Amino acid sequence: MRHMSTRIVLVLALAATALGCLPASTSPTDAGSDSGGAVTYTKDVQPIFGVKCAPCHTGQSMGNHNIGTTYADALKPVVSLDSPAGCWLDGFNKTMPKTIGECTVPAIMEGWMPMAMGCFNTPRPDTCVSVDQQAIVEAWVAAGMPQ
Fold it and tell me: Is 147 a domain residue?
């Protein structure tokens, strides 16, 4: 039992270290770098989505959401069956959707979004979410997607 609690402490320490090392900047304009604290949609993630997820998800409501401009849309369930398996609580069965916000991580990681931009390549093209930006989105989802 002691071995298990040591592992838990180690995992928590590593997670805290990783989150503390995230870059403060979310865009070339240093959006959000002037304030510390938790990663939020408004301060950190929306500037990324506003650039990388536009034009499809900032007014056209593709995928039934406008996550690039509307926080409430991050809380909507995934509806597109062609979404990556990581967007579903039951994987490939695709009957139990995660939220759009949660789906952004597998969509980025699998090179699925932005669509048709070659984001599965290494290095990633400029049109894609960068590795640093991906880390910010991951931290936001892990924190419960605060506004």
Answer: no
Examine residue 71 and state whether it is found in any structural domain, yes or no.
Answer: yes
Which residue range forms the structural domain that includes residue 42? 2-142
- 37 has pLDDT over 70: yes
pLDDT (tens digit, 9 = 90+) per residue, 93-141?
999 999 999 999 999 988 888 887 888 888 888 888 999 999 999 999 9
Length of the chain: 147
Helices (H), 53-127: 100-109
Global confidence as pTM: 0.71
Q: How far, in Å, CA of 46 to CA of 136, rounded?
A: 11
**Number of domains the chain contains:** 1
Alpha-carbon span 94 to 77, nearest angstrom: 12
Task: Please report whether residue 137 resides in a domain.
Answer: yes
CA separation for the pair 112, 16 (Å, rounded): 28
